[in-house]
Amino acid sequence: MNNNSGAVASQAFIFDMDGTLFETDTILAGVHERIFRTLREEGLYMKPEPPLEQVLGCLGMLLEDIWTTIMPDSSEAARKRADELMLQYELEAMEAGEGRLYEHVESTLRELKSRGFKLFVASNGLEHYVKGIAHHKGISELFDGLYSAGEYQTASKVDLVARLMRDHDIKTGWMVGDRSSDVEAGKSNGLGVVGCAYAVYGRQEELQDADKLITDFRELLELAV
């Protein structure tokens, strides 16, 4: 990890969603079981259900890469249906009040917003999933943009963050996330990178090139200058 953790003048904070703002395992366990039960019922995937831990370990990837990783012998039809089911079941769970943000996320976002920073999400997830979390958890109005690979059809998070920065004329800021794709997206676009060491889905070595590691979301306020 780069030990330069000093604050730099910034316009914006760009956040990953799963494992950064949203504690994904609080919703995914039930969704995971439902997806594979439905795929079996529909005759699309009859092999044993992959372990939930394997799915959680893939968070941060594009969805097509997640299904290819955990269902390498599946058909295109099965993977497409899994996409549809995941979105449907995740939205249903959120509408039922399931799932939660990490501790201190909402209060810290509100404080950053009050200090005049632009806030964004850049996620490799589906559009309605990303926007659904922000809506159901009452934080939509805090963001200047909610960007997802599902909406913009980007091939990588590097491309997604580049588009976000062009659209909003962002020159300086921080990329905040828990996976190597977040580190790469920040570094490739000239941003400082904050690694979320409180997340459990990735491996710590994925964040070794981050400029700062945090174990508490409130530590971001130290960078809000």
UniProtKB/TrEMBL annotation:
Gene3D superfamilies in alphabetical order: HAD superfamily/HAD-like, Putative phosphatase, domain 2
Source domain of life: Bacteria
Any one Pfam family match given in the protein's UniProt record, by short name: HAD_2
InterPro entries to which the protein is assigned, alphabetical: HAD-like_hydrolase_sf, HAD-like_sf, HAD_2, HAD_sf, PGP-like_dom2
Native species: Paenibacillus oenotherae
Protein name: HAD hydrolase-like protein
